Amino acid sequence: MNTKSVLTYLYLLLAASSYAQAYEGPGGIITDDGVSNDYLLSISDLNPDILDENHGLVSVCITISHTWLSDLDIRLISPAGDNLMLTSGNGGDSDAYENTCFTMSVPVHILDGGPPFDGAYRPFTPLGNVNNGQSGNGTWILRILDTYAYADGGQVLSWTLNFGIHAPVAAPFPGSVLPIILLNTDNYTIPNEPKISGSIYVISNESGALNHPDDIPVFEGHMAIEVRGSSSQQFPKKSYSMETQDEEGNDLETSLLGLPEEEDWILYSPYTDKSFLRDAVTYQLGNELGEYAPRAKACELYVNGDYQGIYWLEEKIKRDKERVDIAKLNPVDTLGDELTGGYLLKVDRDDGDVSYFVSQFPGTYSDMQIRIVYEDPEGQDMHPKQKEYISNYFEDFEAALYSDDFTDEALGYRRYVDLKSVIDYFIICELGHNVDAYRLSTFFYKDRNSVDSTLHFGPLWDFNLSYGNVDYCHSQYVDGWAFNDSGGCDNTPLWWARFLEDPYYQDRLKCRYDSLRQTVLSTAHVLGYIDSMANVLDPAAERNYDRWPILSRYIWPNFFIGATYEEEINYMKEWMAGRLEWMDANIPGECLPVSSVDETTSSGITLVPNPAVKSFVIRTTQSELTSADINIISAGGQIVRTIESVIPDTEIDIAALPSGVYIVMINTQRGITVQQKLVILN
Q1: 3-state DSSP call for residue 63?
Q2: Which end of the chain is more exposed for a tag (fewer CB within 10 A), N or C?
Q3: What is the tens place of the pLDDT at every residue in 99-143?
Q4: How far apart are CA 655 and CA 652, in angstroms?
Q5: Count of CB atoms situated within 10 Å of the CB of 306
Q6: Model confidence pLDDT, tens digit, residues 15-43
């Protein structure tokens, strides 16, 4: 018998003297069909039957055989409905829990154990949650879900509940400055798919008072919910995809935590990201750049009464007037302008043959496909003519990008893409040195030609493995380009390297980056946002890490492992400051300063008044100039307004533009381009 087994035996032997009663439940097969397995134990003679600190549940012991332990989510549900997660996502591909006892009287957490877990460990949910003054007589349920269905099997050999004196009890919830979301699925474990029904309650006291789980909700309603994610599903703390519904199960648009009304939501669980902030920082910066990124609100979450820690309520990326604001593409839209827009696409993992089309050009791994996935509408909901149109459009874009004329404004790639969105997307992906960038969760969309005929890149999504939070593909370091490092990891489109071969793209990139470094991407602004959010999250972080004690532990794929929440925040800040410094020194291109453009030219065209407030007009001495197209360009090289066929002396509204120095580019009918500097004082 090894040392660990001896210690476990001694622990159980000593503890047995204080156990008032022990009850053994039945075993059985663990089905592998995505459905929870319940093993029922009826108790009628527990004495005293009230569970509290004087006499309550002190340990739960299990013996289970299964060919892949980390697939199992194992819970105990009391007669009163208290839901305890004993273990989940542990054990990898090993196959046994051998008399594994969960108790609060040892310091070792199940996270620190290893198969066959033949010892005593703390569970994820404190056992004290059931010792709350309710009766222990009734039906107890050991509920096990194989979270990866149709792959392997196993069985419960035995399980035992032990009751005794000096039982643990739960500490009262102290209140939170964060909103609280309560989900109830009648104690059914939420599966990967399909969605199951439940209820949602949102607590957010507008008065500024702390929030408590038993406060009166500001919203309560119905929902359908499932686990979401890919590699993140291996973690015990799950993320969820949720739809708000009416009583009949129909989708119901509603506002949650002040976000615009919709029915599709994400409850994102930062687990491997111990700062909780990598996604949130990214989306905040994306929105500040003027591009849509999902809005997110921090909260604390309970699922079936079991505290889950810090989560982010996020907008699911989809076509919607408050999200990706493009035309809705219906199956009947197969002709004319209606056919040309309403496409939301992504480079990502696909869901089968009808869910994607294939790029005609290779990526970094020429023997693999670049698959373009239909996101909204999904492939099964699209007409064949719609698939043909958007795949042909995309093929034309790539053909122009890889052609000899790719730098030509009329013949090259620029007629197919919105360059500002390409540049902004590139800057944020590179800022994060995101190992998943460009090859996964890379969204882009196209509206109808009557609105905008170009592809827009974005929204940003899934940055938990960014900002130094990864230990592979060089992405843990502040130097190097993500499009290269991501391409070394997996098959990545070569679009980004090709863009950078265009001097025009380089110069626009340089101008945009330099401008952002003075505002949104200034080091002070970025680090200030992190500090402000960390201060808000700090009290909840302590509760989160009591529930999920992963500080000082390696959680795949951490590069840095901090002992405290403060250390995790400081690491992220230092990393981001270092990354910005590296990008400062390595962003290619040259940016023509606004000051180098003459105040006036000999073209006979002037801007009046200049400086301007709210509006200006174009004055000309050229009698043949009857109209012109104009672009108003910011100091960073961004086109902020385009107006066609402007007649001289016509008032041009600039009330929406902030104060600053701009370039007005005037394109005459004769093909002459004139640049004038305009100072706006709004």
Answers
A1: strand
A2: N
A3: 999 999 999 999 999 999 999 999 999 999 999 999 999 999 999
A4: 9
A5: 19
A6: 444 446 999 999 999 998 888 999 999 99
Phi then psi for residue 612, to 5 deg, are -120, 150
R_g of the chain, CA atoms, integer Å: 29
Q: For the segment 446-464, what is each residue's pLDDT rounded down to a tens digit?
A: 999 999 999 999 999 999 9
Position 13 scores a pLDDT of 43
Residues 6+ apart with CB under 8 A from 633: 639, 640, 662, 663, 664, 665
User: Edge-to-edge, what's the strand order for the sheet holding 652-653?
Assistant: 639-646, 628-633, 660-668, 673-680, 605-613, 615-620, 652-653
- Domains of the chain as residue ranges with CATH: 3-165 (2.60.120.260), 180-315 (no CATH), 336-586 (no CATH), 594-680 (2.60.40.1270)
Cα separation values, 610 from 9, 360, 604, 619, 661, Å:
87, 50, 15, 12, 11
Query: Measured between alpha carbons, how far is residue 657 from residues 418, 598, 680 in Å?
Result: 20, 22, 8
Report CA dihedral (160, 166, 171, 172) to the nearest 10 degrees.
100
Res 423 pLDDT > 90: yes
- How much is the pTM? 0.85
Q: Could you give the CA distance from residue 132 to residue 213 in angstroms, rounded to a whole number?
A: 15
Q: How far apart are CA 473 and CA 120, in angstroms?
A: 38
Helix, strand and coil in the chain, % to nearest 5: 25, 30, 45
SS3 401: helix
| Among 292, 294, 290, residue whose Cα is nearest residue 279 | 294
Strand-pair partners of 264: 243
- Per-residue confidence band for 299, with pLDDT thresholds at 50, 70 and 90: very high
663 within 8 A of 629, measured Cβ to Cβ? no
Cα(536)–Cα(177) distance, integer angstroms: 8
Nearest Cα residue to 263 out of 240, 249, 245: 245
Looking at the DSSP assignment, which residues form a beta bridge with residue 632?
Answer: 641, 664
Burial of 662 (0-12, 13-18, 19+ CB in 10 A): buried
The predicted-structure confidence for 538-593, as pLDDT tens digits, reads as follows 999 999 999 999 999 999 999 999 999 999 999 999 999 999 999 999 999 998 65
Q: Among candidates 596, 393, 408, which has minimal Cα distance to 505?
A: 408
C-alpha 265/C-alpha 316 separation (Å) is 5
Would you say 49 and 130 are in contact if contact means Cβ atoms under 8 Å apart?
A: no
**DSSP structural state of residue 218:** S
List the one residue out of 353, 369, 352 whose CA is nearest residue 361: 369
Q: How far apart are CA 639 and CA 455, in angstroms?
A: 16
**Token pair belonging to 48:** 């005293």
For position 671, what pLDDT does the model report?
65
Calculate the alpha carbon distances from 459 to 57, 449, 475, 506 in Å: 49, 20, 21, 22
CA–CA dist 329, 487 (Å, integer)? 33
